[in-house]
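Quick start: what a row looks like.
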Amino acid sequence: MPLLIIVTLLWAFSFSLIGVYLAGSVDSYFAVFTRVLLAALLFLPLLRWRACSPRTALALMAIGAVQLGIMYLFYYQSFLLLSVPEVLLFTIFTPVYIALLYDLLERRFSPWNLLVALLAVAGAAVIRWGRPQGEFWLGFLVVQGANICFALGQVAYKQFMQHRPTLPGRQVFAWFYLGALLVVTAAWLVLGEPDYPRTGLQWGILLWLGLVASGLGYFLWNKGATQVAAGTLAAMNNALIPAGLLVNLLIWNREADLPRLALGGSIIVGAVALNEWRQRRSGPPVPAG
């Protein structure tokens, strides 16, 4: 779980950086393309071409295409329709998708996974539930598209790597980014507009998001996902919400209800702690990657 906590703190800044400095100023398709390209370039030097079979490489590319490529296309569009707090709020459904997808792939139904996920959803819902203005329903659906892609990718990678414990994760993870790069390149070429970064700050943010948030972030998050139980993974997804709102409040002075933030965050932490306690009693999860 330490890897998931580190990446949560890292990603807490991404929501505000995108919403404040890039959304509406830089073409979303170009921003997504640049971010994924930088992440791929970061891991290409580590790629061992013969470390996995063509079938394994294609599977990793497919996971990356969904979890990162298609997800980012939905995710960046959502900032054109919603505020940063609203985007954060509407990610509360990701844990439910993770729990249900995991059980579906396992061909079983685990009430415990669903319970932990719903506790995390309840904690996130406590934090901020207002009446969003503007294109509410369209924005809501766009965020759900991102949530489903992110959930599906996490579950697929976790299952995939647990069946290949000897596969050297960092030496083949470039395939993940290459799969995403195919998707976002096609989207940028077909749908992109010539709205490029105009300031050094915007370019710097893209570099940070590409190399650090995407490059290191997604590798560490997916590796962390293989080391925890499904319920913990589901709950940790919602830890991004209080972290992102707190960053948004302290740095960009956006409105937030601190008592609600504290209460909702406590519920989420409680859900994670409860699942970890139960997991320790039943035995450690099988590590992979």
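That is the whole record. The longest helix spans residues 136-162. Residues 2-282 form one domain.
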